[in-house]
Specification:
Blueprint lengths: L3 E2 L1 H11 L18 E2 L2 E4 L18 E9 L5 E8 L7 E3 L20 E8 L1 H4 L6 E2 L1 H11 L7 E6 L9 H4 L17 E2 L1 H10 L2 E6 L13 H7 L5 E3 L12 E7 L7 E10 L2
Parallel strand pairs: 7-9, 8-10, 9-11, 11-12
Antiparallel strand pairs: 1-2, 3-14, 4-5, 6-12, 6-14, 7-13, 13-14
Helix pairs in contact: 5-6
């Protein structure tokens, strides 16, 4: 059944919630009866729980039930506490994460978190090599196959196929150990610094996402891809899922993180809108 998503209501709620904030933008042109219809909404977000995968040195997700049940006044009441690191599960890396003068989570323009998107599927290479680094050649091959350049102002999603291993840490991270010593044991695909630099120099993208724990591959020591992209205020979405359910073109992304003041990252709810 075709789903009708009332896009202008989302736009209004976003704009109202960001009123007078420095990153408020006029994202939508709205008339009284305007709405955008599309065929499907795909949730690209892993659920947050005690199974959520975090960086091996980061605080893991904690969930505390405060109340759950019927009160003495006869109504049901439920409330919980949670605690978590910024960087874990499906989350955003704000530019300041690797750039001293980069935008914090609350400063990222909404324009960079939503819009037309493309998917580049390199799972055939990555699933056979957990240390695979997506190359400039992979981008150029995609453009050759599509007969077009990566569009200006697009959001790029990189599908490695690794989300199917989530939350199995041995398969997804390469290790189930934690702490500083575990960093050297990490094995998962990422984007090569050379390809990141090529994007910055030759294509104008809003943001980028990947279905692994990091935009840099697991064995990275200097996180050059982070430095290159975030240094240009291009945020990264990490630990995505369901990219296999997306076409390579013809969809939109809405990626809204928890709005943490001065945050270097935040839990992210990201969805893809398919169809017209």
């Amino acid at each position: 059944m075709k789903t009708t998503f009332v896009y202008f209501l989302v736009g209004i709620s976003i704009l109202l919630s960001c009123k007078d904030q420095p990153n408020t933008e006029k994202v939508f042109s709205i008339t009284d009866d305007q709405q955008v219809s599309f065929d499907q909404i795909v949730d690209l977000t892993h659920v947050f729980s005690e199974e959520t995968v975090y960086w091996v040195t980061a605080k893991e997700f904690e969930f505390d039930i405060v109340a759950q049940g019927e009160t003495d006044k006869g109504y049901y009441y439920s409330a919980n506490n949670f605690a978590t690191a910024e960087h874990g599960g499906t989350h955003i890396d704000a530019p300041i994460h690797f750039s001293e003068k980069g935008q914090t989570v609350d400063e990222i323009p909404l324009h960079n978190l939503m819009g037309e998107a493309i998917k580049i599927n390199i799972s055939a290479k990555a699933l056979g090599n957990p240390d695979y680094q997506i190359s400039t050649e992979d981008f150029m091959n995609w453009e050759k196959e599509k007969g077009t350049q990566i569009p200006d102002g697009s959001i790029i999603l990189l599908e490695t196929g690794f989300s199917k291993f989530y939350p199995d840490k041995m398969k997804y991270l390469g290790t189930d150990q934690r702490g500083e010593k575990a960093v050297q044991l990490l094995h998962f695909p990422g984007l090569s610094p050379e390809a990141a630099q090529w994007l910055v120099d030759n294509r104008k993208i809003k943001s980028i996402g990947i279905d692994t724990p990091s935009i840099d591959y697991g064995q990275s020591q200097y996180f050059e891809t982070h430095v290159i992209l975030l240094g240009q205020n291009i945020p990264a979405f990490e630990n995505l899922t369901n990219l296999d359910k997306l076409p390579e073109t013809g969809f939109k992304i809405i990626a809204l993180p928890m709005k943490i003041k001065q945050g270097s990252g935040a839990p992210l709810r990201i969805v893809a809108l398919l169809g017209n």
